[in-house]
Design the sequence.
């Protein structure tokens, strides 16, 4: 493991990569790599094409199943009600959307919005309950330009996906735009463990064990090297909270889970 991989990105670099448009940057981070901004979306698409078939299984394996608890906690924190309209940005295989649909059914609607067709396809079989089947829609699209009008949704959520958007701030601005006044935002994302000893173990697991399992099971060491790199590029909770407030969100809060490995961010338009 290189010395670089042992280091979580410093404050200045984290802030720059959050909003490359504002800094005029011509490149973006793809993991630890600098790539032309125009190429990052395609790189992300190729990455998820390569892991889509194994995505759910690998998530459960690599997190020891804890990601299901995180997702339930995150959706519960939104206090969704029957009949509400919910947008699941970077919704992938639909775990969050299914949990939300169970709360807003039978008259509500959840839209899974994801740029990657293979990920959407990989999750279609999971919407099997008669109660929620009519509540879930699918749209393939870019989170930086959400294809719906202003003020349409009661809630918007994104789970473990916003860090793959080329301009993350633009993604959050789009979620703000499509929310109704008083609408809720929920972002569930990985973060930096708080306890130093645990963080060192986590780094070892991330850069040795995860890529090995990715190669053996999913056939892609590269994809599961990119995963821990992208996590270490993501803004820390207080940094992201400040960005959300600048966009216009209020009541911005966050709650760390499992020693800070994951964090639930909540905000209101």
Sequence:
């Amino acid at each position: 493991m290189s010395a670089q991989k042992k280091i979580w990105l410093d404050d200045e670099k984290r802030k720059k990569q959050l909003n490359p448009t504002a800094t005029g940057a011509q490149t973006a981070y793809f993991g630890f790599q600098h790539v032309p901004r125009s190429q990052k979306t395609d790189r992300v698409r190729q990455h998820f094409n390569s892991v889509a078939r194994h995505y759910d299984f690998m998530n459960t394996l690599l997190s020891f199943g804890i990601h299901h608890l995180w997702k339930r906690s995150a959706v519960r924190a939104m206090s969704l009600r029957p009949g509400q309209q919910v947008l699941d940005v970077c919704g992938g295989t639909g775990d969050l959307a299914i949990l939300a649909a169970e709360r807003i059914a039978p008259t509500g609607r959840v839209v899974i919005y994801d740029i990657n067709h293979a990920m959407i396809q990989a999750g279609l079989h999971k919407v099997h309950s008669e109660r929620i089947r009519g509540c879930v829609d699918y749209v393939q699209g870019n989170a930086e330009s959400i294809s719906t009008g202003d003020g349409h949704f009661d809630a918007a959520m994104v789970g473990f996906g916003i860090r793959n958007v080329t301009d993350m701030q633009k993604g959050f601005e789009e979620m703000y735009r499509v929310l109704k006044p008083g609408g809720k935002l929920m972002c569930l994302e990985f973060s930096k463990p708080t306890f130093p000893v645990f963080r060192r173990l986590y780094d070892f697991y991330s850069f040795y064990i995860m890529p090995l399992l990715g190669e053996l099971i999913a056939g892609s060491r590269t994809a599961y090297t990119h995963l821990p790199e992208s996590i270490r590029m993501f803004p820390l909770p207080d940094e992201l909270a400040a960005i959300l407030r600048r966009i216009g969100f209020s009541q911005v809060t966050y709650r760390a889970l499992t020693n800070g490995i994951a964090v639930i961010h909540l905000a209101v338009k």
